[in-house]
Amino acid sequence: xxxxxxxxxxxxxxxxxxxxxxxxxxxxxxxxxxxxxxxxxxxxxxxxxxxxxxxxxxxxxxxxxxxxxxxxxxxxxxxxxxxxxxxxxxxxxxxxxxxxxxxxxxxxxxxxxxxxxxxxxxxxxxxxxxxxxxxxxxxxxxxxxxxxxxxxxxxxxxxxxxxxxxxxxxxxxxxxxxxxxxxxxxxxxxxxxxxxxxxxxxxxxxxxxxxxxxxxxxxxxxxxxxxxxxxxxxxxxxxxxxxxxxxxxxxxxxxxxxxxxxxxxxxxxxxxxxxxxxxxx
Length: 281
Known about the structure:
281 residues; Rossmann fold; eight-stranded mixed sheet; 10 helices; 8 strands; globular
């Protein structure tokens, strides 16, 4: 497989220069390295600029509703564990109305990959401030200043015990590809936070300004130390990129199958829904 094999027939509608183009390219390259088959892969999204992603891919796609990409992706993986499931979305979609699903995805540990493209703005609806907008940000919708503290997606993922947590920057496509590849290979819930500047509606967090802030995690960083990873997520001196944390534990699908096996042992293989109903009569 080549990266071009995953490119959809629908022409991208993202603005020229949008950071999401790099994310799309990096994902397709990572998928090609793994030999993903298009009919065995599904891209699930919510609502927003980045959630147009499935239209630009040749895989199966599910364009769900605002904030609901993760529960749809988890349900799909439960229904058919053989499918490679990748959820995509933006900071508004994943941290505002979808924030609660983000919490529970971390603790359940489904075997899916979640790529969040963070442009620190609601771009599709023309520039409202989002959960990751910086204090003082001004837009046409917020002409004076944004006054709410911003959410730290990496710190959230670490707090919820996501089993693979990484951050990259759409201006570094080589690193982005490696981190997405690592997330796809990882067995469990992998979260990749991508700083993906909006060239149209966010002049505060531009490519130039973000480039001054990003820096790689130290080479000796212990990815098994979640508490230390949180220190780097908190770090005031810049935006660290790389793999913050990785651990291996049973996935949601594996635990669910264990429950089914135990139930069959107790109730018997021929136990049916009718037998369940009889218990309540």
